[in-house]
Design brief:
By secondary structure, the protein is of the alpha+beta class. The protein has two domains: 185 residues, no CATH class; 93 residues, Alpha-Beta Plaits, CATH 3.30.70. 71% of the residues lie in helices and 8% in strands. It contains nine helices and four strands, in the order ααβαβαβαβαααα. It has a four-stranded antiparallel beta sheet.
């Protein structure tokens, strides 16, 4: 395609936006509203998935060591546990440190008198290579010599994983349904803009215009509709999430969790929304023009 021809197509595509008037406004409104909804649910879904992953990563196995186990035996035990399949990390917590952790987490002053003669057991804090492997790893560690017992939340762990997995599946389905709905509504609104000018297309074909010559201005128009319609959702989502993050980040940090920072998220969401707008705009225009090219 010659450069002058491309310039002509771009110029015509831009002019078409003004010629369509209210139809252009309707298309831009449809793109804007649907992308705002999609962007909002994407923010919720991605942060929900991040929180679920954080909760799962905090799952650990606490293996308590028999009283009277000496340092050499503890070193041998640690080496054996490190060699276990699917063990990701291991840390030794002596009984005095365990008592300090207990005092810090409960603020019960009576525990202060136990300093220096902690009744607790030395313990190993272990994380599995995958949270879903926690139970099998805990079972294997419990069979080691010098291990008095293990704790890993056996009563709640299956329910926890079921909740997080169900949340991910439900979120994926909702986002997929929203994207499909957005594509359907936006493309059909854009199609109405094109259909309103079907006589113009047919006349161009009758005087000898090629399919490509007819199609390109509408291709540019659809692309511009999608791109322009994504600007407001990107700005709303960007500024809105910055505000929400500043208001809620401290709440989650106080509970040792976090939500995705705007720097991590906004660029990704912006690129995704702009891409969806562009693709849907182009697709709606091309599919609408195609039916009028056979004259």
């Amino acid at each position: 395609m010659k450069f002058n021809t491309l310039k002509r197509h771009i110029r015509e595509g831009v002019k078409n936006l003004g010629r369509s008037g209210w139809m252009t406004f309707a298309s831009l409104s449809a793109v804007t509203v649907m992308l705002v909804i999609v962007g909002f649910f994407l923010i919720v879904f991605l942060n929900g998935n991040h929180l679920a992953s954080s909760i799962e990563e905090n799952v650990e196995i606490r293996a308590f060591i028999e009283h009277g186990t000496n340092e050499e035996q503890i070193s041998e035990l640690i080496q054996e546990v490190e060699n276990e399949t699917n063990v990701n990390d291991i840390a030794f917590i002596d009984k005095e440190q365990g008592l300090e952790n207990l005092i810090a987490s409960t603020d019960i002053e009576a525990y202060n008198s136990l300093r220096g003669e902690s009744p607790l057991r030395d313990a190993l804090s272990i994380t599995a290579a995958s949270p879903q492997m926690t139970e099998s790893v805990a079972t294997a560690i419990d069979e080691h010599q010098y291990i008095h017992g293990v704790e890993y939340g056996a009563e709640i762990l299956p329910d926890l994983f079921q909740i997080t997995n169900t949340g991910r599946i439900a979120g994926t389905i909702v986002i997929g349904a929203l994207l499909f709905t957005a594509m359907f509504l936006i493309s059909n609104t854009i199609k109405l803009t094109i259909v309103a000018r079907k006589k113009e297309i047919q006349i161009m074909k009758l005087v000898g215009a090629t399919n490509g010559f007819v199609r390109w201005p509408f291709f540019i128009e659809g692309m511009l509709l999608g791109l322009l319609g994504s600007i407001i959702p990107i700005l709303l989502i960007g500024f809105g999430y910055h505000f929400a993050y500043s208001e809620t980040a401290g709440f989650f940090e106080a509970r040792q969790y976090s939500i995705l920072s705007p720097d991590q998220l906004i660029i990704q969401i912006s690129v995704l929304l702009a891409s969806v707008g562009l693709l849907v705009g182009i697709w709606g225009s091309v599919m609408s023009v195609r039916k009028f090219l056979k004259v």
